[in-house]
Amino acid sequence: LLRLKAVLQIAQERPKQAIETYSILLSLIQAQREAQSNNSGHAKSSHTENIAERNMEMAAWQDLATVYTKFGSWPDAEICLNKAKAIDFYSPKSWHTTGLLFEAQSLYKEALVSFSVSLSIEPDYLPSIVSTAAVLIKLDGQSLPVARSFLMNALQLDPTNHDAWMNLGLIAKMEGSLQLAADYFQAAYELKLSAPVEAFA
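Request: output the structure for the sequence above.
Response:
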């Protein structure tokens, strides 16, 4: 529930409150872990519970990194990502978020490498497919066909992905197809209105 609260706070553009909520969540996880290690004589948590706890902690670090990236706190974002990767180095979301951090700093080649790592772990990881296209669009006009290919792949996986439609609109606009761009932007806008705050996957 705390993580959901933080996600909602991010959606409401309340980053300070979200950071506080994540801090509380991480403190609770740490306290629970310490309590379990101190109660070694009692029944241990199940393997499933331990995995769930680790996944929750990793998700919190990933979310925090996203918040810090969005608001330009690069060092804090990097610390959070290192914490997340220490839990699971092969999490596609951690590598994707690393790519977003590089992209935010205009380090586009490094961003592409991170998105590539994410996709090497999970080839159909939609956020990294779309973000790869977005970075290719920023790099140069010669990469537009490749970017379009990534976006079409993304839309095959999820036709309701508003970011993919938005980036297709950018490509169409750059190519001078203004009516097509307008259609794509309209689709992106309408889909974004109906998009959930938090992905269900």
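The mean pLDDT is 88.
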